[in-house]
User: Fold this.
Amino acid sequence: MPKVVPEYKEEAKSRILDAANKVFAEKGYHEATMDDIAKRLGVSKGAIYLYFSSKEDLFEAMCKTAPQAFKEILYSSFGDEANPIQSATQFFDKMLKLSASNPGLSFEILSEASRNPGLKRILRQNHEEYERVLTGFLAEGRKRKIVGDNLDIRPLANALIALWNGLETLLVAGLPIDETRRAWLEALKAIFMNQHGANRKPSFQPSRDGSKAA
Assistant:
């Protein structure tokens, strides 16, 4: 009988996902194995298979947690009366901290996905969830006159996602964090602040369920 992870089911899954994230960060997706993850936890490989059928299944579960983390950072950074530049800076720093363990891992996974249809499907689904979260946030911004009516929200959401991914590439290539942060802020000013004047502060905080905040 395999040694079972000694927690309740959801707690066990959480521990396995945390261990997998560390192993993927150290070895990369391609080189990491279920044995490596089991060793990290101090259990048999059979115990991991009680919860996840394969490395790909485990990676898919990890991916599903990322959009929720992104949503929490997005809504916590852009507060009701916050200065837009301060908010954008907070967002940048929190997102940077989220990926700090191995900023290059996502690019290794992208490379692997070019040869792995299963991984490609997972990444596509993950992108769709990021798009849904950001589109909802921008749509609420339009209702409150923060996002201009001349901007097409869905393509804008994808452009912002691409902007962030591109900045991650620059970080991996060695661009200093301060310069990358400045590039992020200048891009947001160019997109948004000219809509209503450079000194205007945002006057809304979309609620987490997408409804209007008071």
Summary: Residues 19 and 158 are 31 Å apart (CA to CA). The chain has nine helices and no strands.
